[in-house]
Amino acid sequence: MSILAxxxxxxxxxxxxxxxxxxxxxxxxxxxxDIMDGHFVPNLSYGPELVENFTTTFPNMEAEIHLMSNNLDxxxxxxxxxxxxxxxxxxxxxxxxxxxxxxxxxxNVKAGLVINPxxxxxxxxxxxxxIDQLLIMTVKPGFGGQSFRADSSTRIAQAKKIIAEAGKDIxxxxxxxxxxKTAEIAKAAGADVFVAGSFIFKKGxxxxxxxxxxxxxx
Length: 218
Ligand code: DX5
Ligand code: ZN
Prior knowledge:
By secondary structure, this protein is of the alpha/beta class. The protein has one domain (about 5-215): TIM Barrel. It contains 8 helices and 8 strands, in the order βαβαβαβαββαβαβαα. The chain has an 8-stranded parallel β-sheet with strand order 1-8-7-6-5-4-3-2. Strand 7, helix 6 and strand 8 (about 195) form a beta-alpha-beta unit. The termini are close together. D-xylitol-5-phosphate binds near residues 139, 177 and 178.
């Protein structure tokens, strides 16, 4: 079964609560919250307070944190404390992936590993026992509103094969440039979880945009 996880990054921060509520009314159960540190990526977004407010205001929603930071000593504990249900950090952001996967497990937070478009899919192999989700970036991280990369299908299929050969059942998530056309492409390649930002929050009534994606992802 596919999961849709709207990214609030391109929502208007002044209307955030009501936009999130509108997405919930459209059937959403999980939100993707992009954290950018201005260092690992050349953009800044939210701090832990936003996540804390999200989890207290919408306690039944799953908070999926996409951490685009390489200051993990500070940022991972801060976002775990803020109430992350699932925390995804980048393979490229640390020399000690294992340590942080263990940290998340010890704190009862589901662990996601993220790989950038230029990182070989093969790098995931040593971590398949420890991850709850794999996020394959379908754009270079840092900004919403970019185009889905054409080589993404091959990468999704490659990851699907590696995971199956290891006898694991790890959902593959895609993030970046997902709309009603690219969602279909990613689904056909084997993606399970779909992040969409601009398409949901900028291109039309939120519930209507969600419905367009849900119709494809069913
Ligand atoms: C990009 C972020 C994405 C982004 C998705 O760095 O990780 O989650 O917000 O936005 P769209 O759907 O507009 O590409
Ligand atoms: Zn993201």
